[in-house]
Amino acid sequence: MEASEPWSQQAAWQALLALRPRLRRFATGLTGSLDEADDLVQAVYERAVERHWQWEPGTRFQSWVFKIAHSLWISRQRQVTVRGGRNEPVDPDSLIGCDGERTMQAKLTLADVRRLVSLLPSEQRGALMLVAVEGLSYADAAQVLGVPAGTVASRVARARLALVEALEGKEVAPAIPAPALTRSGS
């Protein structure tokens, strides 16, 4: 596509299809549920195709799409908080379907890591998924998350440290939204 050619809905759809596996993996990491991830990916597709004109040529398309996914997920988290619902955890057994001793050991390790990742606070989990799994730079992840690159680096470092400690047998507290703090007069 030439620089002067407008970004068409068809071009947006083709680019989205190419990103599908990475977008689904990112959505699964955010939501912790394959079903919710598929719903989120569908919502991202709808939003990106409807608003294809908002993408600025010369910027990274994948960052724009991941930002849409992150924004939609944050909105859904807020809705869940207001409605009082909770997300169901991913069943790690449904993610790998091979047999054999080596595969089983890898499956157990992968299941442990996925479980531990799901226990991370959402801010750390999102940053870790973008940088460590999707391969975005800190700057691109910062753009997606709407925070400074240093904040992304800190979140990723804290997430990695928590995972290492958990894999070494130290207990990791589950991520529970912190209650709103109020200021007292003293």
Explain this structure.
The protein has 186 residues and is an all-alpha fold. Helices cover 65% and strands 0% of the residues. It contains seven helices and no strands. The protein has helices at residues 9-31, 34-50, 61-83, 101-119, 122-133, 138-145, 149-167. Helix 1 packs antiparallel against helix 2 (34-50) and helix 5 (122-133) crosses helix 6. It is globular, with a radius of gyration of 18 Å. The N and C termini lie far apart (63 Å).
SSE inventory with pairings:
Blueprint lengths: L8 H23 L2 H17 L10 H23 L17 H19 L2 H12 L4 H8 L3 H19 L19
Order of helices and strands, N to C? HHHHHHH
In whole angstroms, how far apart are the ends? 63 Å
Oligomer: single chain
Q: Give a short account of the largest sheet.
A: none
Unreliably modeled segments: 1-5, 176-186
Beta strands, count: 0
- Kindly name the structural category: mainly alpha
* Overall form: globular
What is the helix tally? 7
- Radius of gyration (CA) equals 18 Å
Strand content: under 5%
Helix content: 55-70%
Report the average pLDDT across residues.
75
What is shown here, in short?
It is built from seven helices and no strands. It has helices at 9-31, 34-50, 61-83, 101-119, 122-133, 138-145, 149-167.
Output the keywords:
0% strand, 7 helices, mainly alpha, 186 residues, disordered N terminus, single chain
